[in-house]
Structures are given as C-alpha cells and as structure tokens.
From TrEMBL:
<dbReference type="GO" id="GO:0005737">
    <property type="term" value="C:cytoplasm"/>
</dbReference>
<keyword id="KW-0227">DNA damage</keyword>
<dbReference type="GO" id="GO:0009381">
    <property type="term" value="F:excinuclease ABC activity"/>
</dbReference>
<dbReference type="Pfam" id="PF14520">
    <property type="entry name" value="HHH_5"/>
</dbReference>
<comment type="similarity">
    <text>Belongs to the UvrC family.</text>
</comment>
<protein>
    <recommendedName>
        <fullName>UvrABC system protein C</fullName>
    </recommendedName>
</protein>
<dbReference type="InterPro" id="IPR038476">
    <property type="entry name" value="UvrC_RNase_H_dom_sf"/>
</dbReference>
<keyword id="KW-0228">DNA excision</keyword>
<dbReference type="InterPro" id="IPR010994">
    <property type="entry name" value="RuvA_2-like"/>
</dbReference>
<dbReference type="InterPro" id="IPR036876">
    <property type="entry name" value="UVR_dom_sf"/>
</dbReference>
<keyword id="KW-0742">SOS response</keyword>
<dbReference type="Pfam" id="PF02151">
    <property type="entry name" value="UVR"/>
</dbReference>
<dbReference type="InterPro" id="IPR001162">
    <property type="entry name" value="UvrC_RNase_H_dom"/>
</dbReference>
<dbReference type="GO" id="GO:0009380">
    <property type="term" value="C:excinuclease repair complex"/>
</dbReference>
<comment type="function">
    <text>The UvrABC repair system catalyzes the recognition and processing of DNA lesions. UvrC both incises the 5' and 3' sides of the lesion. The N-terminal half is responsible for the 3' incision and the C-terminal half is responsible for the 5' incision.</text>
</comment>
<dbReference type="InterPro" id="IPR047296">
    <property type="entry name" value="GIY-YIG_UvrC_Cho"/>
</dbReference>
<feature type="domain" description="GIY-YIG">
    <location>
        <begin position="15"/>
        <end position="94"/>
    </location>
</feature>
Amino acid sequence: MIKDEVKEIINKLPSSPGVYIMKDKYGEVIYVGKALSLKNRVKSYFSKSEGKGAKVLALVQNIAALDYIATDSEVEALILESNLIKKHRPKYNISLKDDKHYPYIKINLKEDFPVVEKVRKITKDKARYFGPYPSGIVVNETLNAIRTLFPLRTCKGKLSKKDRPCLNYHIKKCLAPCAGRISSEDYQKIVEEVILFLEGKNLELIKKMEEEMVKAAENLDFEKAAKLRDQLQGVKAIGEKQKIIFSDLEDRDILALAQGDNLACIQIFSIRGGKLLGSESFKLENTGGSTPEELFHAFITQYYNNAPIIPGEILLPMELQDSKVLLEFLSKKRNGKVVLKVPQKGDKKSLLEMAEKNAKLQLQTFISQQQKNKQEAEEGLLDLAKALGLEELPWRMECYDISNIQGEHSVASMVVFEGGKPVKEKYRKFQIRTVQGPNDFASMAEVIKRRLENFLEGDSSFTPLPHLIIIDGGKGQLSAARKVMEETGFGHIKTIGLAKREEEIFLPNRSEGIILPRNSKGLYLLQRIRDEAHRFALTYHRKLRTKNTLTSELDKIPGIGATRKKILLQTFGSVEEISTKDVGEIAAVKGIPWKVAEEVYKHFRKSR
C-alpha cells in the first residue's frame, strides 16, 4: 500500500529527466535511481508486481518517503545518481565497494617546481594524476625509475632559492631548484618528459630526447649530451620490459565480470600506450537479482565518474542496451570520443578471456573473506550479548569518545557499527559548545544529549536508535551519559563504559567491572569500535587545532583585523599560502596597504 505522502509526490512528478530518492521509515536513503521521465519510471515501481524480482518487491515494501531532483538531461541524471549512490550507499543499489584506495602518482602542475609523489586520494586541485596502480609496490618501482632517470626534486614544501643544495644535488639526482640552480622553464621541460614516460609514450619521449642529445652535441655541450645518452638508455631498458600488446599504441580498458549470489567482481586490465600496465579487481555489493548488463552499467557509471583517465576504448564481453546515454556520459567526462566494443577474435578476445578468469578467481577470494568476516562478526555479537546479559544481539552499536588537550578545541566522535562492521557514512563529529576546560564528564553528557535531541527532532542522520551505546571511559563518563539518557526518556538503551587500562567493562548501577578473556571475540569487537572512535575524534581534533592555530597567526600581526584577515584568506586560500608571498604580492591585494603588507611579510620571515 502506497503512503499518502508518497502518492502525492508521485502525482506531482514531472515527465522530465532526473533522479528519484527513496527512503524508509527512518529517513534512510534505501534506493537512488535515474530516469528519462521521472513520472513514468517511479510509477512503474507501484504497478502490478508480476515479473518484478524479489529485490524490487522488498524495496517497494520499505518505501516510506520519496524525493526527486529534476535535471536538464539524462546524462546529468546519470552523474547525479552516481554521486548520490557513493554518498548514501543505499541498501538496494548495486554498490561499488573499493576499500583499497588504489595508489596514484600525482604531479601538481600549478607549482613552479612540481614534485612527483604517491597519493591514495584524488582531489579536485587541477593536478595531473596517473593510475590507479594495482599496488603501492608498482608505484614505488615507477617512482624509483623516474628518480633514476629524471633529476626532479623529492623534497616537499616551499622553496626560497636561497637554501643550500642537499646530497641529491651532489650525486646528480636533483638539479637544486632550492638553490636557484635551474629555472622554472627548464624544470618544466623535464616534467613534460616525466609525463610522457607516465603516459607510456616512450617512443615519443625517446625521439624527443634523441633530438635534444644531437642538439647538445652540435653545441659542443658534451656533458649534457652524455647525460641525455644515459637517460635514453634507461628509458629504452624500461620500455623493453613493458610488453607492447597493441601496435596502435592506444589507451583502452578491458572489463570482465564474475557474478555470485549477492556479490560480483569486475576485473579491469588497463592498457596504456598499447602496453598492459596492470589489473585491478573491484567488488560490487547488493547485486542479487541483477543482470550482467545492469552490473556493467552500475560499475561504469560509478567507477569512471571519478577516474582520472578515461580511455578512448572500453572492451566488454557483451553488448549493453541503451548505451547511448552511457557513451555520452563517458565522452563528456573524457572530453573526447569513447567507444564500447565486444571483441570477437585476436589479442583483444584473448585478453578479455584472461580478465574473466582473473575475475572468477578474485570473486572466490571476496566470497571467502566475506564469509570469514561475517562469521567473526556474528561470533563477536553473540559473545558480547552473552557477556553483557543482553536479550537481543546489539546489531547497531554507537561508540563515543572525547578528544582535547587541556580543554582546548574539545571535540567528540560518534562511530557506528552495524552487524559488527563499521558504517563510516553514519559517523558523526561534534564540537563541544557548553563546557569550558578539560571536563570529559560534562562533555560526554552534552554529546549524548545532542545526539538524542537530534533523533527527537527527526534528523534522519541520527536514526535509528542504537541497541548498545559504548562510552570510551570509566564510571564517571558512563554515569554522566546515563543521567542524560534517563532525563530524556532513553534510559532503556543498553549502555556500557570501556576503560582502556585494563579493558574493563562498566555497567550502570554495578560497582565492579567485567573483564572479558583476552581471546574473546566480543572484547575484540569492543576494542575495534573503541579504537575507531578514538581515531575519528583525534583526527577531527587535530584538523580543528591546526586550522585555528594557522588562522590565529594573522591575529598576531599589527594592522590585520577581521576584515583584512578575511580579504587575505579569500585571495590566497590559506595562511600557509600567505606565508610564501613577498611584500609586493601582498600589497597588490585590494584593501591591504604597503605598510601592512610589510608587517605580514616580516611576521612570517621571523616565524621561519
């Protein structure tokens, strides 16, 4: 039966493209979908149930609320759908699970003297990213090759051009931009060669280096010519190790699928410049009842929505129906044409078959690990319920921790585990508002009160209520939390305190604590959630403290008030960036007099 509110929204839905967002009775997003016509697509869920799979029927039964966002095109709806799935991880959506954070190589081209570095996260900073690479070992090998062949700096931070060159300069591994031994223009030329190397365009790089070597020899600069000769030999040696699979030297990805009951694996072989650079395995969850075509659609939109490189050709084992929107989406992200092909014979077909074998093997690994994790989580929950005398398994557990240094920048974390596993999108953090000084008891009371009040006010990010609340601390913190819970009518929620020194568990109205055996699965589960709450609170506290410390630096400078501080931060983005500017650059900002610019410049030079 459709709720009246849902029925009312359905009747008002436009026939335009967009995204629909389905929620359960707790306000949790349980499904996100896109449509060419919102009205027709959403209505189809509530038509006759014949022909609908068990997953769709279960979804419809749990829909309590419905939202929608209209878009100008189906491609915009596709991109928005992908972003919302990543944000909410809805229960009934096919979800790309990537816990590995594959490594990338980053070059920040906005810098005069960029560093080539390994990162595990892509940010929208207009830097060049290469990857993802299948492992950190592969990245390290690539970085070592770059540092052997190209004398770029490895040190991070700002350069004054007045520093003394380090050992790398003397052993000819760096050209010492820190000491002004190379211009930005010449340095950037080397960076361009590194980019060609990372793009797998070795033939183009070799040709370029050979031309430079001949030119240096003609100019009688034999030392430079000798260096280029050595670099050439190194590039050629590495190129020989990389097998050229396709003579057209194009970039392409090969995608293969292996499917289980409610889990699937997509294997990607990455071909760059005609060479097989590596392979990756990705886990797809909530796949029960989905067709292979649906799985490829879900993977392609979620994976390539954030991929730094989209190849011009993607090879698949099957044709995808309605691929027009998918191709438009990929071409828009790549800013160039993309084609989907099903290879019938030759090297492409052989590589696809190899990728399929790898996908099947990896799926078995995923299933084995999933079964092991599930068993350990169930054993931990059973062990915990027995030890604490709980009538039901504590399916949803929340753990709270306070972090401060002598009461400064006091913050708290709320970490959520469901079924014995962390649910990171449900973590929450708090800044302590009402407590002055180092008072963990009062701080804990404030946080628990705010959490429960948010639930009472209908905030969907604080639903449902937990089966068990874990307080990181001893009797004092537990008592403070329990008092607030009883005052607000939530005294029925089971609550414990966990003291770190002896891993002692404290229960309300009980003088002696409980100590579980060291090999207890329940204790291990408690330690995991407690450590996660501590990590989350500490990370937030450090971030807040660093931000406040940096911003307060401007408050120490004569002539800088609230208005000028705001102008400087808006212009340069951060205090760290301001500290690198000279007087002229600071004085060029509208509203900053020369004398004040001098004070800013002097302040940061003294600090250094």
